[in-house]
Each structure stands twice: as structure tokens, then as C-alpha cells.
Amino acid sequence: MSHLNEPEIIAKLPEFKNLGEEMKLASGESLKKVYVQKNDYIAIVGYKVLKDFARFTSHEDLSNDKIDYAGKSRIYLTGLKRRGVYRRASEAILRQYNENYNCATPDHQCMNCYNCFTYGGVIAIKDKTQAIKSRLKPTTSFSIQSDEEALIDEEEFHNIVHTDFRMEQAEKGEQKKPSLYTMLLVKPGTVFPFIDIIFNPTKFDLAMYLETLRRADAMGYGSRSSLLGTMETKIIAITDNLKISHKDLLNKIKVDEAGNVNITELKALFGSEVIDEKQLETLRAKLPELIEKHKTEIYGETSLKKSSKS
Ligand SMILES: [Zn+2]
User: Fold this and answer.
1) Distant-in-sequence, close-in-space partners of 37: CB < 8 Å, separation ≥ 6
2) Measured between alpha carbons, how far is 32 from 36 in angstroms, rounded to an integer?
3) Rounded to the nearest whole angstrom, what is the distance from the C-alpha of residue 58 to the centroid of ligand 1?
4) Dihedral sign for Cα atoms in the order 71, 85, 237, 136
């Protein structure tokens, strides 16, 4: 088998599904396909390596999120946080190919474009609330390294933190000291295995996801603009039959002191589901052509407006 062949898991996906299509129900009412729940999925399994300093926090004191999990205290990056960054990255991609595209989260969700059909949305209209569930579900990701190994607290980095905190200083010139927690940053090289799940998947979803990852990784997942938390993603396997857990990922991926990531044991668990990055690159490269082919369904109303103007 040549490397250029599509892996089986990708080959069997439909190219595109129009989830805006109306279906007639037995009751006589019609319903868009996006409101019909489907349980088929692909799970993308891989790991992200932190490229710069970051703070991953959902606390008011800005301490990093950590939890005892699978034998040690680990930093975690919630799936919700990743999904938020993915959605903004995906929005930017769609805008790149159609400048009239004006769906924007959270305030102007159109509920009729690819992004709304993929990441979900809620709009409240008089007497009627519409809600689309997200088809893309990143799960919470935990660091391979313990929080002690992953966090840095060195004098030279305090300057970064102080700059970051300027806005929170007291008004009358009194220096408000950041707490100990806020001094602690997650180090570059920290490894976060992840599982991202796409329900009701298509080749277009996967191509879009791959481009979204590139942008999201460069945008960063950190809490503050001064701490980008940029990452590099390696995809190990794609499966439609998820048998492994986050604990497997944490136990089977090894990171040595020099930061080398060893995934040999994990690959053995997946066997034929291990994916070659060159094959993924082939799919990602088809994205512009796929967007052009399905633009009416992808952009919904926005694209219609455009075509009536030109
Ligand atoms: Zn939309």
C-alpha cells in the first residue's frame, strides 16, 4: 500500500453532508438534519506539545488548573477551552474564503452555516429557542508531566507576570502583589495527549479540522494574550471505535528529560488505526477545493447574499 492511498477510516467517510437540509417528519413538520442526533463518530487521538509559556486556568486567582489523575497531580486543559479556540480558528478560515461571511460567536451566530452546524449554537427568538448541539467535542486533556515538573517559578519570568498584571494593580499607586499561584507558568515542552471527537463525520469535517488545528495551535490556548500557550499537535491515530482512555494515553506516552516524546507503546495499542501525517496532509490540502464545491451549504445565508449581489 502506497503512502498516498487514503487510509480506510478516511476513505469510508462521505465527502460532505448538508445538515441544513430539511427532512419531513411523520407529523408533517419539517426539521433540519442538524437537529437529528447521530452517534457515529471518529476520534482523533494525538498529543500537543506546549511551545511557549502558558497559564491554563479557570480560577479567579489565575492559578493553573490541576487535578490528581492517573497517579499524579497534573495540569489540565479543558475540552471547552480548546473548542472555543477551534471555533474562532474555523471562523477565520471560512472568512478567508468568503469575505461576506459574517457569522460570529457568541453574538452573531447565524445558526445556518458550517460553523454553527459543527460547533453548535443557541438563539432565543420570541416564544422559541433554537439550539444546535456541537458535533465537535474535544475532551479534557491532562499533562504527561506532573504539575511540579510542568510549572516554572523562576525570577526572570516574574517580569512577564508583572506586566501581565499591570491592570490589576491598585489605583493609588500601591503595588498589588500577584499571588504565588499567578507566578507559576506552564513550561514549554509540557505534553498534553488529547482525544477530539467528531460526531456524524465527513471528509470535509476532517480536512477543516486539520486546518483549524494549525491555526488554533498558532493562536494559542493560554488564558491571556501575553501568554499565548501556542502548541504543536501530532496526530497518532484516528478511530471510529474508541477503546482507549485518557489513562492509557498518560501511561503509554513517555517523555524523557530532554523532552523527547516516545509513542511506540501507544502505537502498538492502535495497530492499523495509526495514521500517517502525510496522508492527513493530502486531505488538508484539498480544503480549498472542497470549500469551493460546497460553498452554498457551508456559508448558508451569507453566501446567498453574496451571489445575489454579484
Ligand atoms: Zn453560523
Assistant:
1) 133
2) 8
3) 27
4) positive
Closest CA to 257 of 189, 193, 194: 189
| Cell triple for 307 | 451571489
Q: What is the DSSP letter of 264?
A: H
Q: Looking at residue 6, what is its pLDDT?
A: 86
Mean pLDDT per 10-residue section of the chain, whose length is 310 residues: 73 95 89 88 97 87 88 95 95 95 86 94 77 94 94 62 51 53 82 97 98 96 76 97 93 93 95 92 97 95 51
Say what the alpha-carbon torsion angle 37, 42, 45, 51 is, to the nearest 10 degrees: -70
The predicted structure's pLDDT at residue 49: 97
Residue 264: CB atoms within 10 Å: 9
Q: How many CA atoms lie within 13 A of 80 on its CB side?
A: 4
pLDDT at 105: 81
DSSP-assigned beta bridge partners for residue 277: none
How many Å lie between the centroid of ligand 1 and the Cα of residue 111? 5
Q: How far is the CA of 251 from the centre of ligand 1 (A)?
A: 39
Instruction: Look at the chain and count its residues.
Output: 310
Residue 100 Cα to ligand 1 middle (Å)? 12
Alpha-carbon distance of 231 to 216, in angstroms, equals 8
Cα distance between the two ends of the chain:
47
Q: What are phi and psi of 134, to 5 degrees?
A: -70, 135
* Residue 37: predicted pLDDT: 81
Give residue 113 CA to ligand 1 midpoint distance, Å.
4
How many A from CA of 158 to the centre of ligand 1? 41
Q: Sign (positive/negative) of CA torsion 52, 57, 60, 62?
A: negative
